[in-house]
Amino acid sequence: MIPRPGQTEIPLPPFGDAPPEERPIVRTYTLRHFDSEHGEVVVDFMMHADHGPASGRTCHSRPAWK
What we know:
Radius of gyration: 14 Å
Mean pLDDT: 79
Low-confidence stretches: none
Number of strands: 2
Shape: globular
C-alpha cells in the first residue's frame, strides 16, 4: 500500500465506506525470494515510463533497503 499525497498514515483494510480518495493506493508485487530464517524478501522492480504511484519509492530504493 502506498500513501496518497498528503496522507501521513496508511489506512489498513477493511476500508468500509471510506471514499476512494481516502484509501491508499494498492499495488501487488511478486516476491522473487523469501528467507524465513532472516525475515527478508527479494522483490524485483521495473521502472515504467508512466511514473506510476510506486515510482517515487522505487527510484529511491537501494539494495537491502528497509
